[in-house]
Amino acid sequence: MSSVSPIQIPSRLPLLLTHEGVLLPGSTMRTSVDSARNLQLVRGRLLKGTSLQSTILGVIPNTPDPASDAQDLPPLHRIGTAALAVQVVGSNWPKPHYTLLITGLCRFQIVQVLKEKPYPVAEVEQLDRLEEFPNTCKTGEGLELSEQFYKYAVQILDAVSLEERFKMTIPLLVRQIEGLKLLQKTRKHKQDDDKRVIAIRPIRRLTHIPGTLEDEDEDEDNDDIVMLEKKIRTSSMPEQAHKVCVKEMKRLKKMPQSMPEYALTRNYLELMVELPWNKSTTDRLDIRAARILLDNDHYAMEKLKKRVLEYLAVRQLKNNLKGPILCFVGPPGVGKTSVGRSVAKTLGREFHRIALGGVCDQSDIRGHRRTYVGSMPGRIINGLKTAGVNNPVFLLDEVDKLGKSLQGDPAAALLEVLDPEQNHNFTDHYLNVAFDLSQVLFIATANTTATIPPALLDRMEIIQVPGYTQEEKIEIAHRHLIPKQLEQHGLTPQQIQIPQVTTLDIITRYTREAGVRSLDRKLGAICRAVAVKVAEGQHKEAKLDRSDATEGEGCREHVLEDTKAESIGDTADLALPPEMPILIDFHALKDILGPPMYEMEVSERLSQPGVAIGLAWTPLGGEIMFVEASRMDGEGQLTLTGQLGDVMKESAHLAISWLRSNAKKYHLTNASGNFDLLDNTDIHLHFPAGAVTKDGPSAGVTIVTCLASLFSGRLVRSDVAMTGEITLRGLVLPVGGIKDKVLAAHRAGLKTVIVPQRNEKDLEEIPGNVRHDLRFVTASCLDEVLNAAFDGGFTVKTRPGLLNSKL
Q1: Residue 336, annotated ligand binder?
Q2: Range of 19's domain?
Q3: What is the CATH number of the domain that holds 77?
Q4: Is residue 170 part of a domain?
Q5: 136-158 pLDDT, tens per residue?
Q6: Is 42 annotated in some ligand binding site?
Q7: Given the residues 305, 473, 694, 741, the one annotated as active site
Q8: 754 and 657 assigned to the same domain
Q9: Which one is catalytic: 35, 567, 698, 709?
Q10: CA 72 – CA 66 distance, rounded (Å)
């Protein structure tokens, strides 16, 4: 058997000064490195070294002296322990520091200190025989961290002979054994006491000294854990979710309450038992009652009501019907959100609204993973917890305004939620178990589908909610808006009356919108003004009552006569006798709301050649759009202004090219009488409301009509509006948004609307009263457009008959 030669440590060792304990040979400890000298040691020696020798350092126990200067090297203990650095972990928070895992090898004695900066290095003499480097770590925690044993640990370190070490360590070991016996005896007595009161209080571990003020709080926590465990056992969650909860509960019982993960796990389990895994409401499937309820809550919106009633009918025939994914698309203020609330009311379901405008983090939909600090479930799971049932009506408001950022794409996260083939197995990152969303009725709202990703749009059933006609707005105002405003302002119909003719004036002269929000605000302003008059009248009555109490009945009659005379004379302040309601007519409307904001300026704008009226669609509804043109001497350039998009610019170039190619046919000449319209002539096309971006092909026919008016010197009819895309050969192609555009023309008081012939089918959606007030001309080519736009037609030849549709 060959003998193994002992291992010699380096004769020069860098010194690590530690005050966290005493490292003994064969033991392992973690020590924090945050002083300047120790940081330099780690960076200059451990992190840069590549050999085993560079990981050996001398560990010296050091008690910091507050009175000593931090720049000077403190007095060093004579005996230290050579240690092997097993692990180095660094961090910059809250300040730069390292944590070392070191294992003691053998003791050494300092011969002399060779240098002090940047870290101390000493010449050492090895005191113990080291046969081999240790492979396992033996802990010496009993002698390391306890402050009362620090003095004894240093003495043991200084004891070189084995006999001296035995004399010092045996009393310490005997004392430690006695302490362990006492702790075991205490635990045994405690367990016996717990067995006697097991029917009252659950068994709990001895984690602190009995009799302290923490007992009551811990008892409450333990009772809550027992109740939570009972809820898990009695819950109706699926088997997979139940297994996860049981596993997490076992982990929770083994955790100390001081651990941060304890609160996270407890919150997770509380959410799991609160979720409505199998709790649902029963739908009310009375079709007649549902129809009456929808008609009472909302006027018009026939297509939308029809779709809801269809769902109810199918639901009545088939109980396990999956919830549809509906998307209401329309301008603001038409009642998309309120319809969703009415649908929930009709079905007898819970309603929950989720605002998606500006959301740019997919975790808002799918939740955060529980590894993150402050993690929480997504809005879908949180909404189910709030609703308390698994079949609520979820309103995903403003789905077209979702954002996108480095945190992911929430629109992509919604793909799983809004897919009927996938949402029965929706997995939130926080729950990490599947939840069935197939019974949830999802209703999304949007102003436009242009900003919704195609994949998400494909998963939803689009229902267009167009703007209201003037007649519909009047009905909505008197059925819903005026009663609501009277209630909010404490008024009664006996105090204020708003005739329908006044409501029409508000709609036509003070608002220009597809919905009714501005109309609602104007009615609120009227009610506030009337509330002031009513309050002033009550103040006068109270003053009269005080006069009656002080001066007698005769004096009261005299004051009443004076007050009545003053009220009759002061008509400008709308002061009326107390028994008469305040009637809001046009004069009162002007006093309250000011001068009309919108006057019919159509005839004035078209009083000279080179102006035509187009129809445009915006997310806010349809709008009329003026197109103006002028010509001047120049080099044949075409100038376009009004914040136009590329498509609209191309429509302008198409229009001028078609007119130049047909100039002889229509006898169109420039200022010099030349059929080349751009010969020594510049053309400027302007689209007013320059602050608003405009784009789209539907202005093509309007641009052609405007330029034809400019070069012919003839006026376009002031009661005509038009829309349609053009081609280079003079064809008129169909466009979208016909209903909104027609309603905009009707609001503006126009009488004739020119639309593409292939859009004739869209005219069936126009309300009957609007069709009765308007004359529609369906055109397949630009010849028909020009003939309808000018009095007496536009062609010089025999004018072909117009294809008119009086709907």
Answers
A1: yes
A2: 12-126
A3: 2.30.130.40
A4: no
A5: 444 444 344 444 555 556 877 77
A6: no
A7: 741
A8: yes
A9: 698
A10: 12
